[in-house]
Predict the 3D structure of the following.
Amino acid sequence: MGRIDLHSHTTASDGSLTPEELVRLAKQQGVVTLAVTDHDTISGLPQAIAEGERAGVEIIPGIEISCLYGTTELHILGYFINPDDPHLAPALITYQASREERNPRIVERLRELGCELTYAEIKEAAGSATVGRPHIAQALVRRGYVNNVSEAFDRYLADGAPAYIPRLLPSPGEAIGLIRKIGGIPVLAHPVYTSRLQEPFEQVCATLKGLGLLGIEAIYSSHSRQQTDRYRSISKNQGLLVTGGSDFHGETKPNLLVGTGYGNLSVPSDLLEPMRALAAGRR
Ligand code: AMP
Ligand code: ZN
Ligand code: FE
Ligand code: FE
């Protein structure tokens, strides 16, 4: 049986490959089922689905929505969503607006910190994509202020760094509720990044489950074996689905490949059956 990957990004948000390029690379990598989960946008899905049909890769329509849990940002993945649901577009317009409000302020702060760059050049390089911090990071690399994207986050853009500007985000209840309303399965992305939360992870899961969460991305590129085991057992104890994915972004996240992550990612395809059953039940 081929491999699966339930977390990937394209040029529709902050990935570096077009949807078609992503699907062709996934095919080469032996991926038979791929979820395309761009940040706050579904604009890459039609091309991904069409290329999937040509290449023989099943595409699960997905999205990744940022939300705020207390003061910490969490990402919620949505699987098997209906991109045409009328509830989706107005919400995405709101998320987009919060980015448009934030991005120029980040650039302004960077200029105060001595980095000469303009929002216009970032927009131009991003084309029609949802502009995110990775695009700003790439501009800092191009201008020679940092050596790579990761250094740009550490020195300037990460939460707590000098050019970090929060943006208005939906609550977890809103993000989870939206995904369910559009027929999707909401799943907590990369749980390892919740380590900044004061609350025990089990409690966070229980709260999110109370809001309608259905799964946890226990299998993830940067999870250690121990972390994966721990998140799997918490999922099981709380009656949540286990999912897994690479969070492939192309050149935006160097050395991370679709399907295999940093080399030894392996997402079992038998995770799909319970997801499909739940999704079918929600239609
Ligand atoms: P934004 O959506 O504008 O808030 O940017 C968030 C994106 O930045 C995430 O999808 C990550 O892919 C990326 N990101 C966040 N932190 C880092 C980091 N420390 N190094 C590289 N990329 C990061
Ligand atoms: Zn991203
Ligand atoms: Fe994420
Ligand atoms: Fe992601």
Notes: The mean pLDDT is 96.
